[in-house]
Amino acid sequence: MNIYAIGDLHLSNAQPKAMDIFGDHWKNHFEKISADWNARVKEDDIVLIPGDISWAMNIADAVCDLDAICDLPGKKIMIKGNHDYWWGSMSKINAVLYNETYILQNNSLVVGDYVFCGTRGWSLPGDNGFSENDKKIFEREKLRLQLSLDTTKKYQDKKKIALMHFPPVYENIKNTDFAEILERGGVSEVVFGHLHGEVLKNLHLTNLKIGSVNYNLVSADYLDFKLKKIC
């Protein structure tokens, strides 16, 4: 069993949004992702999708985007991103998912020798423009990450992998509260996305290790729209 990851699919089948407004490399981006996915992923493999799945504003419009993901091979595990406005209750989302496609929200999921957990995350206190409102959301996301990790405690024999949408660390901001929670919780790998465009040119987050935790940036454009093999 292989574990892959790719984030920020930004699908928009119900109300198409031309992603190449963010650069020519985004043209037909999901066709590129799907081609790589179909060529590499087997039915017993896992693909992690850490947020920004669909531009849809409600679950009805998101269904065709979710169908496109469900129809791809392998087991799929997703968390919410900051643009996933369609994301509602777990019961409503689970009702439209199929073909071993799952979501995480204050819980965890065991597959084979691994247990998966995570949360959306938020801007870090060291970010420019970090406000009092950001602090409230940041503290709430810390609690959600801890809640998800707490559900993994009964699986001490499993390797823990966490999904987050926002970066829990930066190359120059390593000692974050998120990093402390992940380290204390025994997580070995973290996948995250959210970062795009020009900001990627000045980042070195390909193989970042802090303590015993490996951090993997898997934004689709950062990966040239190819899945990253995590383990």
Automatic annotation (TrEMBL):
InterPro entries for this protein: Calcineurin-like_PHP (IPR004843), Metallo-depent_PP-like (IPR029052), Metallophosphoesterase_sf (IPR051158), Pesterase_CT488 (IPR014578)
A matching Pfam family: Metallophos
Residues of the signal peptide: none
Domain Calcineurin-like phosphoesterase: 1-197
A GO term for molecular function: hydrolase activity
PANTHER family given in the database record: PHOSPHOESTERASE (PTHR31302:SF22), TRANSMEMBRANE PROTEIN WITH METALLOPHOSPHOESTERASE DOMAIN-RELATED (PTHR31302)
Protein name stated in the entry: Metallophosphoesterase
Source organism: Christensenella hongkongensis
Lineage: Bacteria, Bacillati, Bacillota, Clostridia, Christensenellales
